[in-house]
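Researcher: Batch entry, complex prediction.
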Amino acid sequence: MLRKLIKHELRATGRMMGPMLLIVLVAAVGGNISTYRLLETSNGVLNTLGIVLLSAFFIAILTSGVMAFALMVERFYKNLLRDEGYLTMTLPVSVHEHIWAKLLTSLIWWIAVLAVAAVSMLILVFSRNMMQEIGDILAQLHIADLNLAQNLPHLVLFCVELALLLAVGGACVCLHFYAALAVGCSFTHHKDALSVAGFFVLPAIWHVIQRVAMFLINLMNLEGVGLWLQGLPQATQTHLTMLGVTVVTAIPAALYYVLTAHFLKNRLNLG
Amino acid sequence: MNVLTCNALSKAYGKTPALSGVSLNVESGHIVGLLGPNGSGKTTLIKLANGLLTPDDGTITVCGMRPGKGSHALVSYLPERAVLPEWMSVTQILDFYADFYADFNRDAAQEMIRHLGIEEKQRIRQMSKGTREKVQLIMVMSRQAKLYLLDEPIGGVDPATRDYILSTIISNYNPEAAVVISTHLIADVEKILDDVIFLNRGCVVLENSVDEIRETRGVSVDALFREVFKC
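Model: Structure tokens for the complex:
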């Protein structure tokens, strides 16, 4: 059922995100023409047009990010907690499947936005010289071949860790919104205002929990652990740090998830 | 067999009680009218049966299950408001129902859509209010559910549409299922009801079969309703 939920979620969001990402790519082509043609001439009109096209490109990238973010909130709120919720929340699927479908769809669009932004940047700066420059960079890498080969496993692992951290961080942001909406909309009156309040109160509660946890950790004698960490190779220290940051980011995400699931399952209040 | 069972069910909105200790049973094979004036708790009861609200006290079960994933597969629910996403086309809605409900009869739904002269590529936002309600009803009645919960299916529509809606319900529901129709337009639905439940201010004030009401009291359900809920 999760696969079907994601399919329909992508259909609902794709009708807006699809054209938006296409606009970004088209705007990148316009930006490229501006950079290498229009802004290179001495014609004032063409220069102005170049600036407009270049601005349109950056606005398009920004809008695609904002749209992915707004859709993440809007789909959860409108599709589960407002009128469409009468249809969605009576489907034979579990609350967990609903949350995962929304979460994964949001992450898919964020990844798509990042990928399109990267591709559009390449389109923007693409020129015949660029191929030459890439060739030069590759040649330099070839010189540093030995060093690169030694560090490649660490580099790959670091990239995987960074991707994992970004995914967990993105999920945490989504779940923060979901939890605030699920809690706020469980009340009979002032649902929207209470959702906004929940958005600020929940991280404050998490902050208090963090402080208490840090206080308790400080009470423990962890000097030995610190020394052990310092004795590790630089690369291992980096990997452990990345892992630690990911775990610390995952804890509030897990708490927000539990809260969202609890309120959707036991305190649903569609008015 | 009891399809819907409520036991001392209570629900309040803030300090305002909507249902107070409601106990009732709905058996399979019956069409039941859930009747009462506005604000009597009809919609609240149906929402509780669908798990869209949680009870403050008491229990509600559908085929022995608490409202949730399992019961949703057995209940076909028509809300009192338009809930189909406006951007969807009829084809997309058919896909949606076919994907999630194993008991959805796509052919029957398409036949009814064709009969109404609606194009499958037409989007909900392009339809009139009456047509939207008909499409929503068609989707709900194209399922072979164990329990149909129809909340105000004929409220706010013209008499011709009312007739269409009632005939669609009668000709499409699963005869082994139970149908609960919530309404305050008694005269229109009386002819299709087997049993009635009168709700007033969140309490059950009468639970009886239509035949028995006519035989013992010598009045129609509509006349009895007017007598019971006289202002």
